[in-house]
Every structure is written in structure tokens, then in C-alpha cells.
Amino acid sequence: MKYTKAKILSNVKVVDGIYKMVVEDHNEVNAGQFYMLKNQGTTLLPRPISVCEKEEGKVTFLYATVGKGTKEFANLREGEYIELTGPLGNGFDVKKKYGNVALVSGGIGTAPMVELAKRLRENNKGIKIDFYAGFRDEIFLTDELCKYTNEGYVSTNTGKYGHKGFVTDLLEVDKYDTVLCCGPEVMMKKVVDICKEKGVQVYVSMEKHMACGVGACLVCTCKTKDGNKRTCKDGPVFDGNYVEL
């Protein structure tokens, strides 16, 4: 798989453990897709990072420094280069008529919701788009999401911001025709269960460890009604009624 060098335009800390990296990129990207990123000559395996936002000539990634590879990313500076390949995966169908939409995310799963909200607003100007975002303690990307949504609801485990508890405590699926979700699997399962009970269509963006990003290594398989599927190649976005969480 071919990797290219991309110039880093900025790489800054957003909150403790969360960084935003903007790099030069001229590819067409769909909301919900991801890139494989690696530090030149240092990181052995690439890391899958969702597209947070795509603008002309550049792409924004939000990443959490949870391991050696992403901690190395945090040390990169403006003007340096990172190797990447993408965009990969199927993303969300932003041209589909979803009706009124709830975007539900948890933690770093909030990252792809910015580009998703922007694309949905561009293609569906009259619909209601609300976001529900859950965090442990510090919040991020809520201001960016507010640009493209009608209402926003925030929860934190500690109660520092918004509702103290889980984001699913706030979700009223009866108000929506569709729920689009990304975050920890335990959270997404709860969201899917609520939607099934209420008869609301739901789509989830799966997060799995990946080695190749193109479906060759089978590291990122997830269970579906038709057996195991590759998250990177067949997903990461699946119908919530099809994937088994």
C-alpha cells in the first residue's frame, strides 16, 4: 500500500490527551472515512485516524494519545511531514434523505461528527440536526458542531460540563427519524438497542484496531448478521441493525 508524505500545517493540543492535526491533502473525502497515518521511520504500524473536517487543500484529524504511536504524533511540528494513505472506508451516505437526525458520539468518536454535520447541512438544509456528545471530563469540538446543528446536548462522567452521567441518558430518539453514531462500542450498543425499541433507523461507525486499512490483514473484523466483516473495507459505517455489538 502506497503512503505519501503530507506536510503538517498545524498540530496542537486541544485538551489533555487530545490533539488536532491539520495536513495538506487534495483528495475528495466523504464524512466518516479515515486515513492510515504513520510517523516516518519511527512508527512501525500505521494508526487509523478518522477525518474530522475536510477543507480545500487540507484535512483535519483529531486523535487521542493513547499509545506509543499517537504520542509520537503529538511531537510533530508545523512544517514537518507525516506519511499517510487514504481516504479509506465507506463513510456515511450524506446524500441519503434521513429526515430529522441525531448525531450521537462518545469521546474521540466525536471527531467524524464535524464533517458529517457539515455535509448533512449542505445536502439537507431544512432538516433538524442535533448532536449528543458524551465525554469523561473535558469537552471538545462542541463549538464546531454548533455551526451546523440546531441543538446540542453534552454529558460528562464527572459532571464538569453538561449532564453528569452518560450521553444515552439525554437521548430522546422519538424526536428523530435517524440516529448516526460513533464512539465506544458499549455506548453504541445502548444507542442501537434504544433505536430498535423505538423503530428508529440507526447507523454506527465502528472503531477497531487496524494494521493495513484495506481489508488484507483481517485484524479489524466485526460481527454482523452475515458473519464477520472487515471494519476497514466493508465499514466502518454499518446499519446498526446489521452489525452485532
From TrEMBL:
Q: Where does FAD bind?
A: 47-50, 69-70
Q: In which pathway does it act?
A: Pyrimidine metabolism; UMP biosynthesis via de novo pathway; orotate from (S)-dihydroorotate (NAD(+) route): step 1/1
Query: Which cofactors must be present for this protein to function?
Result: FAD; [2Fe-2S] cluster
Keyword set includes Repressor = no
Binding sites annotated in the UniProt record for [2Fe-2S] cluster: 212, 217, 220, 232
Similarity field? Belongs to the PyrK family.
What does it do?
Responsible for channeling the electrons from the oxidation of dihydroorotate from the FMN redox center in the PyrD type B subunit to the ultimate electron acceptor NAD(+).
HAMAP family given for it? Answer: DHODB_Fe_S_bind (MF_01211)
Query: What name has this protein been given in UniProt?
Result: Dihydroorotate dehydrogenase B (NAD(+)), electron transfer subunit
Q: Which organism is it from?
A: Clostridium hominis
**Its gene?**
pyrK
